[in-house]
Amino acid sequence: MKEQNTYEMAYNKIKEAKKILAIWHVNPDGDSIGSCLGFKYIVEKSCFFKKVDILCNDKISEKYHFLPWVNKIKNNANIWSYDLVVFLDCSDETRAESDNFSFDKKQLKNVINIDHHYTNTNFWNVNIVDSTFSSATAILYDFATKTGLKVDKKAWLCLLTWIYSDTLGFKNANVLDRTYKIAWEIVKLGVDTQIIIKNLFKNNNVNKLKAWWRVLSNCFIDWNNVLNWFISHEEMMMYWVELWDISPVVSILNECEGVNYSMLLSQNWENIKGSLRTVREDVDLTEVASKYGWWGHKRASGFTVKWKLKVKTTISID
Fold it and tell me: What is the pTM of this model?
């Protein structure tokens, strides 16, 4: 069985390595953060006497600060000093690079690629890639249970965070039967789901709500039946919010009846970040996002380009 053979190869590489580095993609979300922290816990608690470091050059949203060991994440590391590097939730190696961090494949000794994006390029020698899973964290759960790795409550807390962040509390189309099964298995162990709900969905303040109002007041439906909305860097500074503070509005506008999809454009210094969402089965957002430097899935995609946002009666990317 190909899956089991791949799991066995990854398991052996983890077992043989003494020093391991886990890397997620830029602008980490709940899936990337939960999978990397969960991986760290699972490996270090599985009697391998390993040390797993996590590398991240981006600021992590405060709503994820309740997760265990989030304060131990490194912002700098000598990649070549590790026996094994594990990429989680990265569709390709460039998704892990940033202005402050890049790498040369020649520096890497052994690499495992764990991901659920169907656009994954299978860029390493051991690729655990399955787009039928709704998250990298779900694949990690499957990998851990099938290889007999130990998972304690803290690791389960990290894994369950994905379900609430990526599925918005079981509301998105990526919720499958096994999503509920994984959640049930975790809840049975006594994991406190309320701490996740409180930090992800009940942490708003007045500034965030005002920024949401700004976005909602700017939205309009264009001639392609696309619900557009935008926010400038100056507006975010005015309300003292970050990009991740605006992201919950995606789920609100995505519920607008009759549109093909919704798109948020946000200006962050020299970059424009685009977030695309749809609930329609006949719309493939990868066809839209693939015109730019992009990532994602059919119903949830994004892109980042080094352009300026021009706002007139409509919006355009210059």
Answer: 0.77
